[in-house]
Amino acid sequence: MASVTNNTENVNTTAWEGFKGETWRHEVNTRDFIQENYTEYRGNDQFLEPIAESTDKLWAKLQELFEVEHEQNGVYDMDSNIPSTVTSHGPGYLNKEEEKIVGLQTDVPLKQAFQPFGGIKMANNALQSNGYEVDEDMNKIFTDWSKTHNQGVFDAYTPEMRRARSNKIITGLPDAYGRGRIIGDYRRIALYGIDYLIEHKQDDLANTGNRTMTDDVIRLREEVTEQLRALNDLKTMAASYGFDISHPAETAQEAIQWLYFGYLGAIKSQNGAAMSFGRVSAFLDIYIQRDLDKGLISEAQAQELIDQLVLKLRMVKFARTPEYNELFSGFPIWATLSLAGMGIDGRSLVTKNDFRLLHTLTNMGPAPEPNMTVLYSSHLPEGFRTFAAKMAKESSSIQFENDDLLRENWGSDDVAIACCVSATVTGKDMQFFGARANLCKAVLYAINGGIDEKTKKQVGPKYRPITGDSIDYDDFIEKYKDMLAWLAELYVNTLNVIHYMHDKYSYEAAQLALMDTDLKRTFATGIAGISHAADSVMAIKYGNVQVIRDEDGLAVDYAPQNEFPTYGNDNKEADDMANWIVEYFITQIKRQHTYRDSAPTTSLLTITSNVVYGKATGNTPDGRRAGKPLAPGANPSYQDGKYLGEKNGLLASLNSTARLNYENAMDGISNTQTINPTGLGKDEDTRIGNLRNVLDGYFDKGAYHINVNVFSNDLLLDAQENPEKYPNLTIRVSGYAVKFRDLTREQQNDVISRTAHDRM
Amino acid sequence: MASVTNNTENVNTTAWEGFKGETWRHEVNTRDFIQENYTEYRGNDQFLEPIAESTDKLWAKLQELFEVEHEQNGVYDMDSNIPSTVTSHGPGYLNKEEEKIVGLQTDVPLKQAFQPFGGIKMANNALQSNGYEVDEDMNKIFTDWSKTHNQGVFDAYTPEMRRARSNKIITGLPDAYGRGRIIGDYRRIALYGIDYLIEHKQDDLANTGNRTMTDDVIRLREEVTEQLRALNDLKTMAASYGFDISHPAETAQEAIQWLYFGYLGAIKSQNGAAMSFGRVSAFLDIYIQRDLDKGLISEAQAQELIDQLVLKLRMVKFARTPEYNELFSGFPIWATLSLAGMGIDGRSLVTKNDFRLLHTLTNMGPAPEPNMTVLYSSHLPEGFRTFAAKMAKESSSIQFENDDLLRENWGSDDVAIACCVSATVTGKDMQFFGARANLCKAVLYAINGGIDEKTKKQVGPKYRPITGDSIDYDDFIEKYKDMLAWLAELYVNTLNVIHYMHDKYSYEAAQLALMDTDLKRTFATGIAGISHAADSVMAIKYGNVQVIRDEDGLAVDYAPQNEFPTYGNDNKEADDMANWIVEYFITQIKRQHTYRDSAPTTSLLTITSNVVYGKATGNTPDGRRAGKPLAPGANPSYQDGKYLGEKNGLLASLNSTARLNYENAMDGISNTQTINPTGLGKDEDTRIGNLRNVLDGYFDKGAYHINVNVFSNDLLLDAQENPEKYPNLTIRVSGYAVKFRDLTREQQNDVISRTAHDRM
């Protein structure tokens, strides 16, 4: 929504001293500010400084707290009777004297907040399962008087939705927890100060609706008023730490602090499925460079500020339930930090700050958070590509996304990644997160006429099953299409309920206050089990699959009689089968009515839930055994077996993944790979160079994403047996980085069982 | 929504023993049950029994409590920290041994509940203004964590809406208190028991929406689930009094008790603008007659049950603010009880119970509540018409509505009146109550180009004002039409916001649970100041109105130079002017988008707010002085003055009111009249007969409503000076009956200033 006030700069001009450009001064436009002011850096990592003494002390103290937390199964402490809001807690510190950047979620480091608005049952479950008592007053308040998102959703669900959910054909739905995935443009606070943002939101409110009060206009007007309330709350919260963020930041330290306060408001008020941090690197570099140029700070001090910001992001904690931890173990919160990327004007957006941010993995060692995400292109300066490859190799904590695809498909060079692979244009897009449907299980539903192979319940529609001893491909395909069409409709409508209720009972005012009022909303569905689905269809087409039935005639196992091509081995037909399934499914998704007319997308992403999803899925025609994990995300199957697995090496596998069509899965395609260091070459420089070349080639072929791990399985086996030796061993799993010791044993086994490529 | 379960009688058949008919057994249909089973009564009042000893004791005790309450300015006691819900309070009694019908709003008689869901500010204001302390915990809960209706509304209001509201061109909006006006079909509990109703609502839930989850389907599904929760809560509440209402009532006493529990659930969970009781007379008579026929009870016991039900309705109290009391003084709650009426089959619906219910005014004396409302027709049996006229004359506590118009326009003989004059088909319609727009003030806005004559603020659109010394009729009419069109649009959109938020934050689950899921909703706007608006336009047309201006040129007074016809004197042109204004306004209303596609209606009703509205309205072209009360409802002006007043007697006044077109004001047309007993004839019988004849003639002419008062102004003057002599003097004011001593002095003066007709 364009501003209709006719303001010239109404902000403290010393804050903007030395900044260039005009457009961003007259409207809220952080991208324009960045484009006008950032200094591209094409050099190497030689300028980087080691950890400051202050940061070292803080990090040492935090490590101690982490040990306590680890011994207490991931919970240092928990609140039970202060519903967390932007202003619910007084200021908290780790070590006030040493902190250059301040602000905690609660008043005590690592203490997990009580966040009942998404669902009181889940908040209580988190308390009880961690040995804390439920507060009866709070339980009464959020049961009898203040309804929660979770209750609203289940009030509106149909029996069919409950069945699909409990039988796990649709899984991981954000109906008992916050949907997350929304990234506030936290930079706005630093550049404009809260008062200017309030003025612009008031302007938006005045121009919301043409006077006719339809439901959508009323809803938006209420939301913008809630956003205004949240902006004032952010000021109050910052003031409790002694800062006045009503005006713009004047220094790099203030810019980082202001921006972090914005994020802090978000995580105080929401326990979302992913609370991502956004794209702040070039933005903050502008402030740092100005202070460096003025001689106000040294490079060492710049690194100190960045290290301390990152340290804060490493401290973010949310109360979680055992069920949640089983799906996504290791307590990820997806404080995804998007780095680098190219500008649409041809310059790269790489600044020294991208180096500084990755350098935190050296200064403080590898860590799961923030979720370091490099927006990669072979057009990025070589110095940075080399450094990124080096840090990925050394830390196994970095993911890469194809920045060329992002710019092409989102029309912006200010895209940030939410969670793992979800693109949103910063401050302009929000996502309705929708977890995923199990398309591998849908293969079995197509065969069994909608009866679940595990629970024997009629879950899908009562279509005619396949009854013979073998499966006719043409017959199957028609049945699979019918079942996918049913699943897409049910799935979208389930999500419609969820997002209606989330807006109603758990609206993210603090985050949306820092975004445009006139938002583009995506409706993010997701697909689980794509590789097994594709391989199963290939098996049915070419493998002469014989059906094994139980006493009731239900198909419960499958025996392919012939070899068949599988996805992940650079076989075009198998890879195209995966593409066809995705395209057919997203086409059915797009036919549906979506909440707030949001734009449907889908993802190939399971994060670590592939283990739980696999447990709920019977034997599949591709030869995968019942209960075994699905391959995560868009990964090719890595199961042992006669037919499955990446048999042709890393590059063939990457070629297959690169063949997947991003246009059909605009919410992202996740691929996780491990390569044995020896597979990359003999010495360090060769290995770094080869990894960089692999990334260049992979992304130039149009692949969307990769999690890079460089280690041998021997290391993991040793870490599994001797966890005390590897307290900080961090690896990339599907969707995030995690401390290996924090994975469940089942998930550790899954990771170990994956192919660690010994050859390219 | 028709039932799709295929149940035959699944209820205790002894409860239905002796009842006739089939349809009502297979679907929730209380009207059909009544039609099949009621016994019309065409006799007189000779069968009636005096007050029972038990009731006498209860009434005596209640009188004592009323005195305490009166001494404490209408507040016996107040809760401050128990948000009132259906199940929030344990059982309470007045005198348990004597109570045949039990159930209190809180645990103590007359104690006012704490009802924050409509708005915490209003709930706190009610506490503070009555000398109670605000509970800080409750304030925090309902400010920080649980949003209220009031907050939601003001979050979405536009500045224009706030201006229109604070300048009182739109007035009395239910944006800080409950909208009320919804009448649950409380009979359903008695006839079916809660379990059967739950089963049917579950059936409705299963058939809500065609799987596509649009916002309206999601909303309705959540609402029905809330209704199911409320039905279970009603069972819990009844059980606390020792009754199991899961099954149908088996006796008259149970039927009355079950039905009252339904109403009790409503008033425990809502502090609405009018909490009407509905149409229960013939329904309960069926149960009473069955028990009488079986010899289970005597007529004296039947009267005892009815008296005690009515006694309970006299005890209903809500926490109120001074601002509310100023608008509607005397603490009305509009427990409107609709009596008599004709059936569409030609039989009257009069039963002995209509006599019993009116007879409570004798047994316990006149009282404001329940709001006794006779659905009148000259086709009703003469015995009842005579008795109703007699009771009206003796109590001045009865209102009459035209049942012929109701049946014709609402297509049902099961219409009940909500509040004063608002028709709803029982269990099938609900109303979105919308207070009123001041069309008399709109005359002044048309003249002054949208500038308010009292506040001098630009409130309406900046249309060209009338600038000359006199007012050209044609010029004025165009300007008035423009202003009415603006007002209608703004008014409807304001109400759209209110009802969206009421559904969101203060949904009436306990009432709507006892109504059809597939409801017809009316969107009830209202008009204040119709007679002054019509007379002002007549003055402009015929009176050569000279304009007197203030120093800024704003028109502030008007001097008609000639006589002009006025509304209320049986002048067709003046009366038609009133009709034209209403028709033009409702036409503009009907052009608008209305919330949930509800059907727009309007009313001519001000209740006692005519005094406050008049205060906010400047001098008007008809000669009315600034600040003087508007004539209430559709009443002709009764102001002294050269031009105004009913100059041609009662019948001429009634003829004018009868000329108003109900089709354009389907939310009702209110008329309040007082006649000096001597004007009705010399002796009692003549007076009763004449009053009955007046009613017959008035309604046969198509008039909609009348409040009947029979007394002289001397009585009121004496009561004003010596209130202790008249503790129970009850009169009909516009919209309700009230104890005269509970009116503000200003309102007493207004009542006294009205024409008490000495001649027909």
Automatic annotation (TrEMBL), chains A, B:
This is Formate acetyltransferase. Belongs to the glycyl radical enzyme (GRE) family. PFL subfamily. Residues 616-638 are annotated as: Disordered. It is found in: Cytoplasm. GO terms for molecular function: formate C-acetyltransferase activity. The active site is at C419, C420. Its main location: cytoplasm. NCBIfam families: pyr_form_ly_1 (TIGR01255). Residues 637-760 form the Glycine radical domain. The keyword Transferase applies. Residues 10-625 form the PFL domain. Pfam families: Gly_radical, PFL-like. One of its GO terms (cellular component) is cytosol. Pathway: Fermentation; pyruvate fermentation; formate from pyruvate: step 1/1. It is an enzyme of class 2 (transferase).
